[in-house]
Write a structure and sequence with these properties.
The protein is α/β, with parallel strands linked by helices. It contains 15 helices and 13 strands. It has helices spanning about 15-30, 45-50, 65-80, 90-105, 120-125, 135-145, 170-175, 200-210, 225-235, 250-255, 270-280, 290-295, 310-320, 325-340, 345-360, and strands spanning about 1-5, 35-40, 55-60, 85, 105-110, 130-135, 155, 185-190, 215-220, 240-245, 260-265, 285, 300-305. α8 packs parallel to α9 (about 225-235). This is Glycosyl transferase.
Length: about 350
């Protein structure tokens, strides 16, 4: 079996990272011949070249780049795959589906976000594909509510490589981010975009600092919303409390030095950072939206709150910060939860089963 994977993201964030896991697992476990179509100069292109995979790099300028249709079709003709698997948006979801139709090659698409689109857009766009793979049941529910049939939408959860993390060195961690030895470290690991909800945490920080003056907040990630957040930080007098770290390549290793992960997102497909935190035994406070309740069981490996509810968010954070024993118990629960629910093997097998069923049907 030969599969052409299309991932046009420039960085190796959560979704693109999952593509590397899937391609490697399909090769190792099932002998699948995987080829990657990626944006020229992207991090994932370099990563998969280093691993020995065939990579085709093209120019990709987003949703309005109509030239993607011909570039993707050319790649399909060059590779001659049995199947095309589109993993990203940025134009790939529409132009990739059209190109596969044009080339008369079966195609599937992974859906990683839970934001709804209009019913006609959803039915037209995903009608280009033989199968839609969602990374959470929450996303699957959204698509079914927009008119897709249960037969054409299957959930295969995202996962993490079991040995991808290692213990964090607290001395190095605190020196790197200039933290005091008694600091209570709250991490937010997400792109700096509005829907990730950073501003809700900032709103309640002054009140939290009254009870826990040793709080330090680290925003891990990059994004266009940073300037707005910096303005809010300045207005609230939080410059000594909040730190922007940028995108950290060694983020999986750093999770173990965070006391609490907070993810106040307004919408979220699943949240790879939540899985990484749980794998390292970090308790979580997050919004009960999208696929998050599948990654965080309320009262087990974290606490869930209604989205945009700053009072509930504050109460949940206070509950965990003032109870180290509860944080530790939730951390232990989190490790067990990850081993049971989010293995890479399950994800790889799930994707391969979709491929096999589709090819058998064709």
């Amino acid at each position: 079996m030969k599969v052409l994977h299309i991932e046009l993201g420039k960085h190796l964030y959560g979704g693109a990272k999952q593509v590397t896991f899937i391609m490697q697992g399909l090769k190792d476990d099932f002998g699948v011949d995987n080829v990657l179509l990626a944006t020229r100069g992207s991090v994932i292109a370099q990563e998969m070249k280093q691993r020995g995979f065939q990579v085709i790099e093209i120019a990709a300028k987003g949703d309005l780049d109509i030239g993607l249709l011909w570039r993707i079709k050319k790649a399909i003709q060059q590779v001659q795959p049995d199947l095309v698997h589109v993993h990203s948006r940025r134009g790939a979801d529409v132009w990739g589906g059209l190109a596969a139709k044009w080339a008369k090659v079966p195609a599937v698409i992974s859906r990683r976000v839970d934001n709804p689109e209009s019913r006609w857009v959803t039915r037209w766009k995903y009608g280009l594909y033989d199968k839609v793979i969602t990374i959470s049941e929450g996303i699957r529910t959204v698509l079914l509510s927009q008119g897709l049939t249960a037969e054409n939408v299957v959930c295969v959860r995202s996962a993490l490589v079991e040995d991808a993390t290692s213990a964090c060195n607290p001395i190095d961690f605190r020196a790197r981010f200039n933290l005091a030895s008694d600091a209570l470290v709250i991490g937010v690991v997400a792109q700096l975009i509005e829907r990730k909800g950073h501003s809700y945490l900032l709103t309640i920080l002054p009140a939290l600092l009254e009870s826990f003056p040793q709080i330090k907040v680290l925003f891990f990630g990059k994004g266009k919303y940073r300037e707005t957040l910096e303005q809010q930080i300045a207005q609230l007098g939080l410059k000594e409390t909040v730190q922007f770290t940028g995108f950290c390549e060694d983020m999986p290793r750093l999770f173990g030095c965070i006391d609490l992960l907070v993810h106040p997102a307004l919408m979220e497909g699943l949240g790879v950072s939540l899985l990484q935190a749980s794998q390292q035994g970090v308790p979580i406070v997050a919004s009960a939206v999208g696929g998050i309740p599948e990654a965080v069981e309320d009262g087990v490996n974290g606490l869930l709150v209604p989205a945009a509810d700053t009072k509930a968010l504050q109460n949940a954070i206070e509950k965990l910060l003032q109870n180290p024993e509860l944080r530790q118990q939730m951390g232990e629960n989190a490790k067990q939860f990850m081993r049971q629910q989010f293995s890479v093997q399950q994800m790889v097998v799930g994707n391969h089963e979709v491929y096999q069923q589709l090819l058998n049907r064709h």
